[in-house]
Structures are given as structure tokens and as C-alpha cells.
Amino acid sequence: MISLWRSSSFGFVLLVGLAFILLPRTHGWSKEGHILTCRIAQGLLEPEAAEAVENLLPHYANGDLSSLCVWPDQIRHWYRYRWTSSLHFIDTPDDACTYDYSRDCHDPHSVKDMCVTGAIQNFTSQLLHYREGTSDRRHNMTEALLFLSHFMGDVHQPMHVGFTSDEGGNAIALRWFRHKSNLHHVWDREIVLTALADYYEKNLDSLQEEIVRNLTDGIWFDDVASWQECGDLLPCLNKYATESINIACKWGYEGVKSGETLADEYFNSRMPIVMKRIAQGGVRLAMILNKVFGQPEEGFAAAT
Ligand SMILES: *[C@@H]1O[C@H](CO)[C@@H](O)[C@H](O)[C@H]1NC(C)=O
Ligand SMILES: *[C@@H]1O[C@H](CO)[C@@H](O)[C@H](O)[C@H]1NC(C)=O
Ligand SMILES: *[C@@H]1O[C@H](CO)[C@@H](O)[C@H](O)[C@H]1NC(C)=O
Ligand SMILES: [Zn+2]
Fold it and tell me: Residue 302 has what pLDDT?
């Protein structure tokens, strides 16, 4: 064993292996962002959808959807789930600042539909079979619920619909206040963590309460109805992804250069946007689940 450790090639393989484990390409909202999105959504479910979600969750979740909303990030590098790794994001052409399903929704090998909006459609249509009662054995409905819930968060994270060459900001290394980070991670996690530390005593429940308050009788109260508007799913998903790339261009990438330090100014102007995207993700996830599990005449048409 000692001689193995001394062998430089073994050390190299070990280092590369560790780097691979520690630095996966993209994450999606941090744990906190996904938890908030899913808690907000679960709080807005109508009785039928609430019951279906409870039935689909494994018992160790204790009825709490948010406890498993990060699961798709945890398994994306497992061999069995490698096919899911491109489903967390969309790469759009550099500087185009537009999103086009047929142009952009594919994996790195150009396989169509393998992106976050394609995945949301896929898992929504799988879940539509749930109310037929004949649990469709081709698909695992529990996994479909967890994937849908997670990807609705990801599509609202602006840098998840970013530019191709910088991997949605992952390749833009910079500093966040005093530590090393990258532009993608700033939007995934740093802004949420800094907000939690500065304003909520690191208490996720307090932040959640304030988001919900802003939805029920605060700054977003008048917007919620329009956020939820959705006849057919595909145009709605186009809208969410377009909103994200527009925000990525206007607020994410704008004026940011590799190697620089982002601090108070960036944080103060972007934090409200991050909170709004988390709120929108939650409201819209609830809308989809209510349509999927509610009365058929008010929901999406089931695919055959
Ligand atoms: C849809 O889900 C199935 C597994 O349930 C998977 O094989 C397929 O690749 C998925 N497609 C997309 C676009 O997510
Ligand atoms: C569905 O997926 C979950 C999570 O991977 C797993 O625990 C469960 O056993 C699966 N159910 C079936 C019927 O395969
Ligand atoms: C809630 O709204 C207030 C303005 O009324 C704003 O200052 C605060 O940042 C908002 N909180 C969140 C979490 O969005
Ligand atoms: Zn993700």
C-alpha cells in the first residue's frame, strides 16, 4: 500500500478521481434553493395533488417533498443515472441571449430533448398516467416526481440557461467576497448563503416565511396569477427558459470578468432576483402538480 501511495501515477489517478468527485460540472440551485422551491410548492398544493405527492414519496421522507428535491443532483454521476446529467441545464449560443427549443434542447452528443425543459415535459407526461390508477410500470413515478420537482428549480436558476463555451458560468472563475468561486456557483449558492447569513441568522425557515409572505400579501402578490398562467406546458417552459437566459445576460454575465471579485454591489442588486426566481419556481411547480394530479378537465391533456 505504501509503495502504491508513493507511485506518482497512482497519486495522479487518485487526484484526478477526487477532482471529478469534488468538482462536478453544474449543480442547479444549491441544496437551499431546491429545498425552498419545493417547500413553497408543497404549501400551495390542492388536496388531490397533496395526497398524490404524499403517496409517491418514500416513507423515510415523512411526507416532505423538499427532503428529496436535491436527490437528482446526488445521483447524476452514478453510472445508472448518467443519462440524467444533461437534464439539469440548457446551453445556448454564446451572446445570443435567446432560447430556442429545437436549437438548444439537446445533450452534448446532440440527442434531442435531453435538456432541462425536455426533462420537465418528459416527467410531467409520465406523471399524468398516475391518475389513471394503472401505475404505469414502464416508469417509476416516485423518480418522475423528484426529477420534475428538481428540474423546475433548475430551469428558474438563470445561469442554468447560459452560454455554451463558459458552461453556464462554470468556467468563469472569480472571487465571491474573499473566497474562490465561479459565476455559476454565485447564482446557485453564494447569493442564497450570503442572504441567509446577513439577514436570516442562517435560518432557512425564516427566509422561507418571508418569501411566502411576499407571495401572499407582499411585493409579488399581484404577480402570482400571471406566473401561474399556463394552458399548454411547452410554451410555458419556453417562457421560463427565456426568462432565465434574459436574466443571465442582463444580470448574470453583464460586466463580469473572469478573475475579478464580486461583492456587495453585485450581491445587493442580484439577491432580489434570486429570491424572485425561487418564488416563481415554487409557484409554478405547484401549478404543474395541481394540473397533473387534479381534475382532468382543468389539467394538461395526457399524452397517449
Ligand atoms: C424520460 O425519462 C426516461 C426514463 O423514465 C428516460 O429514459 C428518457 O431519457 C427521458 N427523456 C428526457 C428527455 O428526459
Ligand atoms: C422507484 O425509485 C425509487 C428511488 O430511486 C426507489 O427507491 C424505488 O424502489 C423505485 N420503485 C420501483 C417500483 O422500482
Ligand atoms: C420581501 O419584500 C420586501 C419588500 O417588501 C423586501 O425588502 C424583501 O427583500 C423581500 N424578501 C424576499 C425574501 O424576497
Ligand atoms: Zn440540478
Answer: 60
